[in-house]
Structures
1.
Amino acid sequence: MNEVAETHGVQFRILGSFECWDGNDRIRVGGPVHEKVLVTLLLEPQRVLPVFRLVEAAWDENAPATAAHQVRKAVAELRQRIPGGRDLIVTEGPGYRALTAPTQVDLGRFTEGLKQAREAAAAGQSAYAMTTLREALALWRGPLLSGTGGSVLSAASAALEERRLTAVEQLFDLRLASGEGSEIIGELREFIDAHPLRETLRGQLMLALFRSGRQADALEEFAKVRDYLIDELGIGPGDALSELHNAVLRNSPELAPPQLPAAVPFTPEDKPSTLPYDLRDFTGREAEVSELLGFVEEAPGSGPLIVAIDGMGGSGKTSLAVRAAHQLAENYPDAQLYIDLRGFTPNGRPLSAGAAAEALLRMLGVPGDRIPDDAEGRIALWRRTMSTHRMILLLDNAMDDSQVRPLLTSPTETLVLVTSRALLVDLDAAHTVSLGVMPPSDSVALVEGVLGRTRAQNEPEAVAQLTELCGHLPLALRIAAARLRKRPRWTVRYLVNRLRDDAHRLAELNSGERSVEVTLRLSYEGLAAETREAFRLLGQHPGSEIDTYAAGALLGISAREAEEVLEYLLDMHLLQQHETGRYAFHDLVRSFAQNLARGGGTRRQPEAGGEQHAAADGDDEIMRAVGRLLDFALAATDAACDLLFPGRARVERSGPPTPTAELPPLETVEQARDWLEREQDSLLAVVSLAYRWEMDRHVGLLAANVVFPLDLRGRLEEFRELGRIAVAATRRLDDAALLRLSLSNLAVACWKLGHLTEGIAMSEEALALAIGLDDRRGEAKDTGVLGLLLSTLGRYDEALPRLQQSIEIKRQLGAERAEAESLTNLSSLYAEWGRYPEAVEAATRSVTLSRSIGSVDKEVEGLTDLAVARIGLGEIGAASDLLARARKLAGEVMSPADLSLVLALSAEVADRLGESAQATEWGESALHLGDLSGVPMREAAVHNIIGRFHTRNGRYATAFELHARARDAASRIGYRVEEARALAGMADALEQMGEREAAATHRESAREAFDAMGIPTSRAA
């Protein structure tokens, strides 16, 4: 199938930051997941990409359990948001296919351009090849998703970058072959600085230098690259570069440039206009507009009419020139051309006259093969073309007279409008219009036009003061009026009071030098003092995104007030927004904000064990803000975990309750689940922030909450790392109670990951602390965790009394959730030991307790263990019913690894009931639901269960392989019962395959292991 969706009006730009356009309207497709999924599809149009490929692209190796669901949801939303999206992204088989035409995606046009350029070059059509290459390379704005797409998209970006560099080298070859030399030296040096190992670029630079009469520089360039290659790679230059070096040494005539043809004027067929749009609310400047129009109407002579408009940055030079050009357009019908000469542009070089001439010729539609390749030839053709036409030429943002003068000619009927921050005194015959600040009356009119006449006229005195504070500068006036318009509750007087102390406002607006920092500082210093403070404090948030509630906590204001601050910073382009209600810093902006905060003072280290910092004045404000954020995170996770994990015990807090910021809506289980899912990464970052600030009590308390959702989502390595951070922080704090809790949680993470020795050490230390503190709840938990670890090691005689003791204490304390959890652990021990009636009793009690407190996650665990016990008793029908209920409830309350176990058990039960198709489906799902390698206990159990299923169905080789993998996982962590079961399963498979000797060896090893654990061989499976 090669259908292409009929959505050619929709355009996608993926070579850089992602953009989707429907005509002139930009389409917001959604958040990062939406963009990654769509970009991945657009990289391979017309190909079906399975869901798992899209999951990898969106999350790399850290996909959540719901990743496949989220991908399907993202695709559904993309289809809704993109015009014609249902025909653009189609479902086929295991995945999706993007039915885009090559012209719809910039990558498609890029690829086609490179292909056409290669073909044209091969056919000797060098001019056309260069034009096509330039057009293709102009599409490149950077790596996919600006380099934020993750490893999958980064790999694709690297391949595309190699294609781009190859095209750049081809273009330089063509330009050199057409006679260019000195014109490309600067461009070549820029590419070499970014890619110093590319010998082709080095050779092209040597040739360009040689042809510019700089033989010594060409030889020096060879010496540089030779030394660089030896230092970096231990090798010398390649043969091609060495041969070029020898040719330069010999001054070989083969390196001479070719002769160039003379330029011929060009007559455009169309009437092109590239003027920017005229501002609808253009205000004031009547005298200047009238002066300019009057000069044009009355000016005599045959030379070009030149009007030079100068003034400070932000004074409205371009707006004035554009308005005049539109009003005069009818008198200059051949063309109206606009070009930015980039005289005062951040991080940009002024446009050379040759480059400007080429751009202007292309605007007129001059074919690429008609444009000379050397700068002088292009300028000559432009001046000849200009002399034969009646048009408007707007040269914006000129650096000085020398940049403009080569583009002018006489005689001509062209009107030339030039804008510059500099007074162009040496531009002969030019009429000068110098713009200062606006008169007070025009300033007021501009504020009224943006803010609204009624609101402005209600406070005429305040509006007048506002225009003075803005220096009557149009840009500042527009910013101030827009701020008021977006905040209808603000009075003009309120804004005047906020701006009155802003000492650096106008000085920064007058800045003539621009860099990233200066440009950001320009926006930053233009803010009111309160907003500047908010910007600095918001930069302390460690997550990739921030919502209004977390922002309110940092700033010490309500979420609604924080939203106003965030929206304003968004309007000022100091924040970005990928999803409604959530805001993000660009990395450079975040660095700028944090540098501002660090500039306030040097942080001093606190005293050992102290919760508070002895900080310099500049840090006090930030520390208070971070403290508010931590209090908010603690209160929000308390509320969310109480809803999601009913019956859990909150950690007791010392001291009076801390007032917290406004919390998000956390009134239902769904709201709590969604909030934790959305904020999980930010919460981890917040804990790390607290640790860096040595706010160790917050670290311990917050970690105790955050481990719950990590455990639920199966993010066990992060669970363990968080536990280690909490242990380190609470040791530093010297708080025995918090240390005990942190050790206990770390022990649980170690158990789940199979680090049993470390887990036992942690739980024994925690238990000793609990006994020393007379902490009965802690003693109950840590005794149970220790019993669980010992049980996993097959030390049932030691584990059983500890689990029983833990259950008894928890029953006495009324800790029903904790008791239910320990009862499932006890049931698992009995089942592994082959004592199935006792396993049934313990699991039944666990299920009853869990239902009584509404703890769905613990109920599912109890149902699973009860099913295991029923299977052990041969009650397959009862086990099937239990597992059906477990699957129904599992939904969002079970980790992928635990759900894999439920599915594996379901496959075993279905198989025993004769439901082979259903058993096969569940068995496959159990093995592929998630990556079990990070959860070795579940990996061993699941592979053993599915291995026995395959043995029963005659697939012995597959069974043997699964049991072998189970043995490896179990032996790696010392999970003795599953290791023995794996050996027994391998023996069964080997025996059926006729390898009786090997089977006997494995069976004997299994028997010895079961005997050592006291498990009757007849009940071992």
2.
Amino acid sequence: MDLEEEIVRSIAAAAGEAGSDPRKALAEAVRAVTVDEYGFSLEKVAGRTRRWVVRSVEPPPCLAFLALTVVAAEGMGNAEEGLASTAYYARLARLLGLDDNDSALRRHYQREAELLWKRVNRWLENLEGERGVPTAFALTHRYVGLPMSQALVREADRKRFPAMFNQFGLSPGMRLAPDDVATYLGIWLTSESSTATANLRRLWRRSDSHDRIAAIAAVELANWDGVQAVSGATSAAGRALVIANLRTGFLGSSLDLSLGIRPSSKDMDGHMEILETAGHWSAIGFTPGTAGLWRNSYTEEIDFGSVLEGLVRIRHAQRDGAPEYKRFPRQVVPLIYDELQSAYVQAERMQLGVDSLILVRASGTTKAAQGAVDEVGRILNSCARPGFSLTTSLSGLPEGWAVFSGVQLFAAPPAGSSRFNELVPLARNQLTVAGGLQIPSRIRKWSTVSPPEVRATVQGENELRVILAEVESEAEIKNWNSDTGTLVAPLADLGLTDGDYQISLFVGAKKTPIQQISVRLRSGDAIDEFTWHRSPRLTYILDTPGGVFSASEAQAEEILVDGLYCDGESGIASTEEATSKVFWCKPREKHSVDRVRIGTPDPKSCVATGAHRIQLPTAYGGSAPKFIEGECTSCGLVKRYPGWLPRNRRFAGRPGEVAADTQVSVSDLPSVAKEKVDWDAALDALVHLGGGSFSSLENVARQLEGSALFVDTFARALEALGHIAVERDQRGRPARWELAPSCLAQTASGLYRLTGRWSRASLAAIESRYGTGVLTRCEFPTGPTEILLRPLPAVDMQWIADLEDATVVMRAGLGLLKALPRLSEVAAALERVPMPGFETAERFDLQSASWVRTGDLSQPGAFRIKRGFENLYVYRDEGDVTDGVGAITSVYLAKHLAANAVGKTFAVYGEGSGSIFTPRGCDLPGLYERAAVAFSGSMPTTKLLTVAQEKRKCLVYGSIDRASADLLATLLTT
């Protein structure tokens, strides 16, 4: 709550106050409500605030009073006659026209202040960060600390903190204890090159303000999303980073690596160039992610071994004078799991208690370089939570490199025990809440279905205590104690419900916590009304054929698909017979991928030799700096050395580096649990959100499995099942999504599948009225648990539907098929563009259902063309070839359109099993797949079939009768 003069005058103008002193007018308005003939009282303000609806987005009634408390706090530290610099209550009393020692003011304020600030924090949470994130917290000075947290450090000061975070390699959203943040503040604010404001540097010179400033900076770091104002940019703004996702899903295990940059200019368009090892610049596309981090779009063409071992240089395309982004090679590369990115992002140092990967060069030209893997493993054995693993052979892992996965560091390496500065954590003490499923939001919250776990570690103390309490009542729910300096506590074991909780870390016999973290648990039972009301209302409008692959906000005139409900029919009759004959029986060609080398390697670099070459600045005499920074000439590693001779020469600590206490033990910690793909928690999180930009859905999907392929699989699966609607652009790229309306959709078995939102209360009501056997829950490895309802009389079906304002849909699969257009009509409706230029191209060979290389695009068909590091999928018919144009679309639609153009379909019907088969990679596109899935009520299974003496993985859509299969064949082939 920053009350700069300009802001206060704007508030006064909005309130119709025309006086010359808006602060005095604010005080008079507050006095009129809080002071009467009997003295000061907060009963009116507190009473109205208690009646304020906790989930409301309307401002709570206490805002004006709290603003005045901030005005009083702003005066602390200023010289004022008769008042000490710490006299908060006297300043507040004078603003209200009361005596300096008014006891009622102190008594009422201390009784109600925390409630009032809690309501403001909750209001900001309800607004999903639209008006800022909650920052009113106090570890010290319990009551006065709340307004001080708003007044001491101004908005201009807070905007400079990201420069410090970047300078010391602190990660977005990182939770550090104020004591640890104070170490970095001390260096930053006393440095001659500091980007801090003069006001902040002046405040820091008062030793009594250190704890308060550090507490504020710790909150700012926890809420930081990685974005940094250009005016405060440091060299970090020109840094390229490695980003990793470890995939362990349905296609096996692999490591997906990509490059990321944080643009230093606001006019970033994603068009970049990267310097190849061969010496020329090639185009590479970057797409925006969350928190200002852009990632390269396509990675399969890049040789990431060259990226890790050489100097990477990236620049803006066709922009003279634009800055370069560089990545220097490292022998040890720590990657910290970033909840905002749902990926592991390269960091300067390891962090305590945080999920991490460590890439280590397993080969080199010296003995020191070759022993790196063993040295890192030895450190992790004594300092990391049990359960981490070492892998030297993994799809996507560059040759000559090893990866440690499942790493959670709980202790610092003993001083002098490792030459790798990257393994030294950034803090002494750490309270971390991680794991589980985090719901995308500006306000940090987790899924109640898949809650996080608490991790705590304390260096130099044996005893630690962690307390979990309910925020509103402050009632203690659980406490954990440890005498080993480390602790792990899963919240999933406690059966917590939707609500706000606070976790506090205590060390030794201290009664004041050294760190606190708020944990907000949410589920589909407590929808986010703010995002629900802002979500687009998306339906599939089939008045035009393009509606089969993209939902929109348009209004339907003839045919509408909403969830699994259809209104209208296309009137197309079956003219083709579904056949069991396979035309895609030609053997597939095998070809290797030519990967492009990027980095510029140096055989004398520390990556190859294992030895850093630290260059220190020249000493010109005069007073010695507090710290001396040196930088490795080959990898850019920054090491900081004290500018004085330490009294204890056994350990000369660098900022953020601590001597490990041998009493810290990790052996008793539970092993790192293997992460599982929890589709149910993911769908529940989407129900809570209700809809929005596709990035929010992508964030949820990447927490299940980090690859772009899985994001596509996840979205298409939920769309096919009728749980969500997805809006796409002409090229098939998803833009927005919305939760589909609740439906009771009849499957081919006669059971009714529940789609959309069905709260736990509604399910409990159904089972309470009709018995537990009325609902059947079916679990699937590649989709959410599906809930099936036994058929009931019409009146009972309607009673159940009314619980969620749902629609009962009879024979849902057939209804969808009857609403769909012919695939040829979709082809004709696609937007045509001039054929783009390309470097290489592939044509989809229909006879083998695979991609084959080609240099000739002057024929109809489906093509995959490469431009730089970008892949485009293009469909062309004979008219397009003549006109020199094509339709850029999704990969699945392009394939099926090419088959349709020659009167064929990849869909093969097995009448005996009542199933449709397609080769994997030729999934049915758009609503054609939703219709096929609606018959069985489950996603297609994968089955290994023999086709022309070759084993082929195929998708199997089950429970489809002959008449419906014929209609589908007609739609796909005519």
